[in-house]
């Protein structure tokens, strides 16, 4: 849909009106037959039709093009009232800058930022409303530290709130202790497995050393026996030598 023609100051050229909604063009597109439309209007039209609503010539979405530059310039220069005129805004500005103004307009209706509040209020009056809004957040006047978020919370019980908070803290502490306990048990199990594995490796090494020592003792005994045999042979040879 286009801009309501009643918002504009002075005469608006017929060529700047949408051929479908008959309001001033908004985000315009132009067909090959040079008829212009609001983007939303022509897209909606072509869902059910395949021709121009003015002269019935065949058109397709792919044939639509931006408005001629001179027409776009004429459109942007049009002067119109802010949409918040009924709320007190007296601003008149060009179509080219109207969106920027209305985004920042002090008379724009905006929702209250407090959860639960359904009030729509002018931007310029928002601060005043927030100061008295029954849904505004504030600290409990009894001193328990509870943040009151709505009018219903005014009836809250400080003792009950503190008890609830204490229970939450206790539950959180128990959870943390359990988590620390599980973590410590996991670490101990890991260290225990590591120690068992290390012990097994050391036991195997000891057994290997024992086996090596046994072989060495056997070799030493063999060498000593060979040495005795050799000594006896030398003594026998010495005796034979003397006899000779």
TrEMBL record:
| Gene Ontology MF term list | ligase activity; zinc ion binding
**Which Pfam families has this protein been placed in?**
zf-C3HC4_2
Q: Does the keyword Phosphoprotein apply?
A: no
Coiled coil regions, renumbered to chain:
192-243
| Protein name stated in the entry | RNF41 ligase
Question: Zn finger regions (TRAF-type) covering which residues?
Answer: 101-144
Q: Where is the TRAF-type domain?
A: 101-144
Domain RING-type positions: 18-56
| Native organism taxonomy | Eukaryota, Metazoa, Chordata, Craniata, Vertebrata
Organism domain of life: Eukaryota
Q: Any stretches that span the bilayer, and where are they?
A: none
Question: What keyword terms does UniProt attach to this protein?
Answer: Coiled coil, Ligase, Metal-binding, Zinc, Zinc-finger
Question: Which biological process terms from the Gene Ontology are attached to this UniProt entry?
Answer: regulation of canonical NF-kappaB signal transduction
